[in-house]
Amino acid sequence: MRRKQNISGRKNEQGVVIVLVAVVMLFVVGAMAALSIDVVTIYTARSEAQLAADAGALAAARVFANSGVTSDASRRSTRNARNLATMIATQVASQNVVGGRTLKTTEITVTFPNVSGPAFDTNPHVTVQTQRTDLPTFFARIWGRTANTVTASATAEAYNPSGANALGSTTIPIAPLCVKPWLLPNIDPTGTSTTNTIFDGTTGAITAPTLVGQSWPKPSYNSNGLYSLCNGDCSPGNGGIQPPITPAVAGGYYPGAIDAADFPAPAQALPGCSSGFNSYQLAVAGCVQTPISCGSTALGPVTVNIDTNPYTPANGSRDADTVAAAECLIHYVTSPGDSDSIDTATTRPPFQFLGGIQNPVAGAVGNDVMVSDSLVTIPVINNSSGTPTNPVTVIGFLQVFLNPSASSTMPLPSPPAGANNQIPATIINMAGCGTGATGQPILGNGASPVAVRLISPP
After folding, report:
1. Would you say 251 and 223 are in contact if contact means Cβ atoms under 8 Å apart?
2. Whose C-alpha in 276, 308, 367, 457 is 20 to 30 A from the C-alpha of 93?
């Protein structure tokens, strides 16, 4: 029988493989952990860079939407608009942290793909690119790579359907999220003729391109400000003898009802001075919350009507109620300087606004602001057949600045016949759809009729 021989030192080698495997695994796991840190750092920084680009692009597009440049059909100049949009986009993007620090202004690039020279499309695009080239590495240092680069890009659009197509499609309707319950006939409000229109009723094209920056009341043309038609009450009255809806005139509005009711803003969003207001006044001091679409396609089961219910005023008339609610909205207390005003240095788009003494935002008083509570959006209705009948069709929107002149006062001493008060207004934006717009409406930029949205990346 063959004897089993012992190999010298064999017993001392037991467990060596386990030790070697443990050592190797230590390095492998460490390397994988370091690699994971690098990968996570890059992906996180990439997401942060994208958020910065998105925010910058949306902010720049919002400049176009709020300043009236998309409604300036004469395309007189775009340099100021681009400069302002670039400044705002850079400020917003540079406040974002990418890879542990905020972006430098040199790491942000702003371009305008469809804007060149004096030409300015009614749906301008703005692209913001963010880039950081010194993102620190961990595992990659083994190969001598001490920094990574992350880049992101976003394109936003300010969409005004008045003569432009969004993304090359047919005209798509818009639906602002916050409008006033005032239905303005499709009549130039600054004049006296009832035949001069604002929009083409079918296409929504702007038919009065010089209205941007114009105001009413206007000496020698229309001495009335914004006031209600039907003496503020479009109910039949007088045993049905009086027509329930009076003919349209320049500068006057019909009180509106959405599904026969007003939709004021939530109580927490209303100014404190609105205490005691009726539902109509709350819709003025706040806004109609239901998105109102222009064109032939409505967003949801929404029917827009002229309010033919009897109106019981709180202050003697609907116009007096309107002025009281508007004064609350724009923070007007005793003098014109209380509310915001249009910066007189901007006589054409892009308009900027100066914070009034009563502006609730800290630091806004006396300084330029991009948005203002004095900016309101009014639906424009089709009245091509003369006096409108219910239900009415919204064919566009005007965004106006209430009480724009530093010398104007509210209420005015010389109201139009049958009304107690009127409100001065300046036209900042015009956005028309006409009756031919189809498809799912694009939600507006809050109260602005010009929609803002990201179109890249999807």
Report:
1. no
2. 367
